[in-house]
Design brief:
binds S-adenosylmethionine, alpha/beta, 228 residues, 4pyrrole_Mease_sub2, Cobalt-precorrin-4 Transmethylase, domain 1, uroporphyrinogen-III C-methyltransferase, 8 strands
Length: 228
């Protein structure tokens, strides 16, 4: 799913800061083995509920290498501005007076459902899709998502980072009026050789995901498109 522009940025870099969701394992395929051997590759992954490289440390490394005159590529998963902290990294570069270019990516919110045969929109079926973070449960006071409004909107709902709270999220949507029989689909490791997906309904999604042992990284889609 890397873009040509992204591949060029990687090829032109001296240092590549990688992420666990980016196509790090395919670097040799993207830019060639010899090109990879020439570069310094630094892993700055933040694993969900696991090893975390602090954002400040990532920012510091980008700035330090750039100040030393190296070309730095920051390789992230999907689109850097979709729940990706990409803008924070741009701000860190700006604050340090370092010029940078943002290369938009193909977000998992759209590519992962597509890889499992689920279009986020379809003519005559739905005219809106909303991408939400399910990182916080609906009852968490820190949550900025209006789940009730989403249930009433009637469009496709794409939840990313929502595996842990799927039961609470589907319950909140149904409590706000979403029909329990609304089709749903969950996809883990989408677009990779390890892709796994399940189809269910809003009412059965949490159970179906548990049965299929769906774990992060996964995206789920709730809406009529998931039944196509
Ligand atoms: C921190 S967010 C980053 C999203 C990224 N910026 C994007 O645009 O795709 C990480 C979440 O994206 C989703 N995700 C990323 N890659 C995925 C994949 N290959 N399969 C399923 N979900 C994925 C998961 O919900 C994961 O928890």
């Amino acid at each position: 799913m890397i873009t040509l522009r992204g591949a060029h940025a990687l090829r032109d870099a001296d240092v590549i800061l990688t992420d666990h969701l980016g196509p790090t394992g395919q670097l040799a395929q993207i830019i060639g083995e010899e090109a990879v051997a020439d570069k310094e590759i630094i892993d700055v992954s933040k694993l969900p509920y696991g090893r975390q490289v602090a954002q400040e440390e990532t920012n510091r490394l980008m700035v330090e290498h750039a100040r030393a005159g190296r070309r730095v590529a920051r390789l992230k998963g999907g689109d850097p501005f979709v729940f990706g902290r990409g803008f924070e990294e741009v701000q860190a570069c700006a604050a340090a007076g370092i010029a940078c270019e943002v290369v938009p990516g193909v977000t998992s919110a759209v590519s992962v459902p597509a890889a499992a045969g689920v279009p986020v929109t379809n003519r005559g079926v739905v005219h809106a899709f909303t991408v939400v973070s399910g990182h916080l449960a609906p009852e968490n006071p820190g949550s900025l998502v209006d789940w009730g409004a989403l249930a009433r909107l009637g469009g496709t709902i794409v939840v990313i980072m929502g595996v842990r709270h799927v039961a609470a999220i589907t319950a909140a949507l149904m409590a706000a009026g979403l029909a329990p029989e609304t089709p749903a689909a969950a996809i883990q490791d989408g677009t990779t050789s390890g892709q796994v997906s399940v189809r269910a309904t809003a009412a059965t999604l949490a159970e179906a995901m548990a049965e299929a042992r769906i774990t992060s990284p996964a995206v789920y889609v709730i809406g009529d498109v998931a039944g196509l």
